[in-house]
Amino acid sequence: MKSNIVLIGMTGSGKTTIGKQLSERLSMPFIDIDHYIEQTEKQTIPELFAVSEAHFREIEAAACQNLAAQQQRTVLSCGGGVVLNQLNIQAFRKTGWIILLDRPIEQIVQDIQTEHRPLLKSGTERLYQLYQERKDLYTEAADIIISNTSSLEHVLNKIEKQLPASIISK
Ligand SMILES: Nc1ncnc2c1ncn2[C@@H]1O[C@H](COP(=O)(O)OP(=O)(O)OP(=O)(O)O)[C@@H](O)[C@H]1O
Ligand SMILES: O=C(O)C1=C[C@@H](O)[C@@H](O)[C@H](O)C1
Ligand SMILES: [Mg+2]
């Protein structure tokens, strides 16, 4: 039975913020996969990227596939590039519901601090480029698409309404 909730979306789309609050509402543990990788590798994401992006992606894939197999009734917030590897998505789909947080790039740009996001070091133009490259991958991977354009409270209510009763009623 699928029991995890997996949040995907562009960097800055709200996965960590919304994931934490959703996990509290549903009394489920929360794991931010970027944070999990930093803890288990004892290195920051920028340090892992400094080796190479491929090095980071390999570690990310192992973390995603292990967590998908091991966790139950857990809210998992993914890194923005999780959809680049279909094995990650296949693993998540087996044990959870994949929710895409869809947030306009203009709103993302207003909020994110680029220094903590290695792919955005060169500026926000890269964000538009990444969106073009990934938008189809995000929508194809998602079981549920949620537009994150209103208050956090409103977005959380919308997510709860779309989740299957088996997750909500526990
Ligand atoms: N609905 C919203 N209303 C107000 N602020 C929001 C909303 N959604 C997200 N934010 C803000 O946008 C910023 C980015 O959100 P967050 O860090 O959760 O994104 P993320 O998807 O986890 O990004 P990354 O993939 O880089 O980790 C945060 O400052 C967060 O508070
Ligand atoms: O969009 C991306 O490819 C990334 C997003 C972050 O969450 C991190 O996982 C990392 O910085 C890569
Ligand atoms: Mg995050």
From TrEMBL:
An example of a GO molecular function for this protein is: shikimate kinase activity
Sequence positions that bind ATP: 12-17, 117
Entry-linked SUPFAM superfamilies: P-loop containing nucleoside triphosphate hydrolases
Spell out the reaction equation it catalyses: shikimate + ATP = 3-phosphoshikimate + ADP + H(+)
Q: Where in the cell is it found?
A: Cytoplasm
Give GO cellular component annotations, separated by semicolons.
cytosol
Q: Which residues bind substrate?
A: 34, 57, 80, 134
Q: What is its EC number?
A: 2.7.1.71
Return the protein name: Shikimate kinase
Provide the taxonomic classification.
Bacteria, Bacillati, Bacillota, Bacilli, Lactobacillales
